[in-house]
């Protein structure tokens, strides 16, 4: 899971994953909207591959990438556990603020 969160830590890699959720893309297609070189995009794809989030296949000279969403599930489960804590804390804050507003009326 560490490699998944490391991969998600960079904005460019998150953007690549968003685009791959739509359809398979070449490394060049992933690089184009990010205004980065093919070499830089390839390095980002390698990080995503190590995390298991992307599968790359070589077709001739083209490197085609496909989203592998499985590793995101473990990250989602981990975050969901802590979401309960955040929700409880926010609910408690809402109660305090609501009570304070009632007292001021």
- Give me the number of helical elements: 5
* End-to-end gap: 49 Å
CATH class of the domain at 2-69: Mainly Alpha
CATH homologous superfamily grouping of the domain at 2-69: Winged helix-like DNA-binding domain superfamily/Winged helix DNA-binding domain
Descriptive report:
The protein has 105 residues and is α+β, with helices and mostly antiparallel strands. The chain has a domain at 2-69: Winged helix-like DNA-binding domain superfamily/Winged helix DNA-binding domain (Arc Repressor Mutant, subunit A, Orthogonal Bundle). It has 5 helices and 3 strands. Strands 1-3-2 form a 3-stranded antiparallel β-sheet. It is elongated, with a radius of gyration of 20 Å. The chain starts with a helix and ends with a helix.
What is the fold's blueprint, element by element?
Blueprint: H1 2-8, H2 11-22, E1 25-26, H3 27-31, H4 38-50, E2 54-59, E3 62-67, H5 70-104
Helix pairs in contact: 1-4
Keywords:
105 residues, elongated, 5 helices, 69% helix, 3-stranded antiparallel β-sheet, alpha+beta, 13% strand, Arc Repressor Mutant, subunit A
């Amino acid at each position: 899971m560490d490699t998944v969160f490391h991969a998600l830590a960079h904005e460019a890699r998150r953007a690549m994953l968003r685009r791959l959720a739509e359809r398979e893309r070449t490394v060049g297609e992933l690089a184009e909207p990010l205004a980065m070189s093919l070499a830089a995009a390839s390095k980002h794809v390698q990080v995503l591959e190590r995390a298991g989030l992307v599968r790359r296949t070589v077709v001739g000279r083209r490197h085609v990438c496909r989203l592998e969403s499985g590793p995101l599930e473990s990250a989602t489960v981990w975050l969901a556990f802590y979401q309960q804590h955040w929700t409880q804390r926010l609910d408690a804050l809402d109660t305090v603020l609501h009570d304070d507003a009632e007292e001021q009326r």
